[in-house]
Amino acid sequence: MALRLGSLRLPWSRKTSHDDDPYWDFFINTPPADLANYVAEMIRKAPGGNIFPTKTDLHTPEITSSHVKELARYLGADLVGIARLASSAGPETLGYPFAVVCVVRAEYDPRRAPGIGGQVPVQNGLFVTFVLSSWIRELGFRAISSEDPNAEKLAVAAGLGTLNPEGRLVTTKYGSQVHVANVIHTDLPLAADG
Known about the structure:
The chain has five helices and nine strands. It is α+β, with helices and mostly antiparallel strands.
């Protein structure tokens, strides 16, 4: 039951409207004039580290998979899945039997919102995959984080959701308001989901 105090009404509506805010529209929809002002560009240009020369003794693939997923969620991924890559997936994935797929929530679709604010899910996803792939290399295994044209299909193969008619990932928890981050291709022994 809401309490009325003249023009003030309690509880306040939690829904905010940015329809009439020109700064918000600029923040969400205007791409940066200088890519040096864009964090995602800095993360993309950061060099990957070296692979530690001695491989770490690991638990079973199932336990290793749970550690990878737990670290990804700690770093900010909302959903994480592991897919087994087919040997015919392409020359860039040869020797990488697994793909780690991280998904972050996206209030605005980064494909339609090119502004710095609209690209926040991209930045969050890049951070997660950059640190996670670095950690895998520190364990002594190969891992590359890169944009994958089949990322949404890999997310489905990893059991994270389904594809809608437009080819977008739809999850049970967040619907279509998600962004699939760069995919990590790795030779770390993991247990595939899905």
